[in-house]
Amino acid sequence: MLEHIPTDTAEDLRKQVQQFRDRSHPSSPADDVNALLALFPRVNTRNGYILDYMVETSTAGVELPIRPFARPADDDSWMPFYEGEVPMRDELVEQLYKYLDYGQTLAGAFEYAYFIIEMWSLRVSRYAAEWLESTPIFTEAGFDEALTKARKVSDLRRPDDYTPTVRTDEDGSGRVRFLVYTAMGWERIYYLESRITDDGYVDQQAGEIVADMGTGLIF
């Protein structure tokens, strides 16, 4: 059964993340991602390890998504090996997810899912653009504010509750669900569905749409 995260807990975290997004310029990859991680107190790395990431471009000159990984805290020369331009699921588990822990609590699972999507958006690229133009919604006031930004709204289905919902299972897996407003591409309010598997991997997909606002900003 999905249970609710307290509104104040979720909203305070959202505000801290927004302040981080608004920083004047990013620092080094390791400092950047670990400063983000510090905003999520229930998400931790394995003792002796920190997070880092690489930024690369494809052979066609297109900036690729970041390649996050965990490395020994005292070895900044350590780099992971990936087979292709985009890391495979198993590679990400071995190089990143198995080094992360959220304590298998409801609040921890929420923070973990939230952290993961923010982490993947640390460098502005076409892959990150939609999320960076998106805002999680945890309150009725936030929902109403998003509606005022739209030129039109159709198929409005106002939720009974605006707080994130979470389920954790004994094997370490879980599900997290919360509302998101995005102005990029297809402007809408929808539920972001996050599935945490028992190896720590997080699969995130856009789910049910509760407000359709038509064409938004173009990439």
What does this structure look like?
This protein is of the alpha+beta class. It has one domain (3-215). Helix content is 26%, strand content 27%. It is built from six helices and ten strands; from the N terminus they run E-H-H-E-E-E-H-E-H-H-E-H-E-E-E-E. Strands 1, 6, 7, 8, 9 and 10 form a six-stranded antiparallel sheet that branches. The chain has a two-stranded antiparallel ribbon with strand order 2-5. Strand 7 and strand 8 form a beta hairpin. The longest helix has 15 residues, at 7-21. The chain is globular and about 50 Å long. The mean pLDDT is 90.
Q: Rg, please?
A: 18 Å
Q: What is the makeup of the main sheet?
A: 6 strands, antiparallel
Q: Overall pLDDT, averaged?
A: 90
Succession of helices and strands: EHHEEEHEHHEHEEEE
Compute the number of helices.
6
The shape, in one word, is: globular
* Strand runs, count: 10
Measured by DSSP, the beta-strand proportion falls in 25-35%
Report the span from N to C terminus.
Answer: 37 Å
Computed structural class: alpha+beta
Domain module count: 1
Contiguous runs where pLDDT drops below 50 for at least 5 residues: none
Fraction of residues in helices? 25-40%
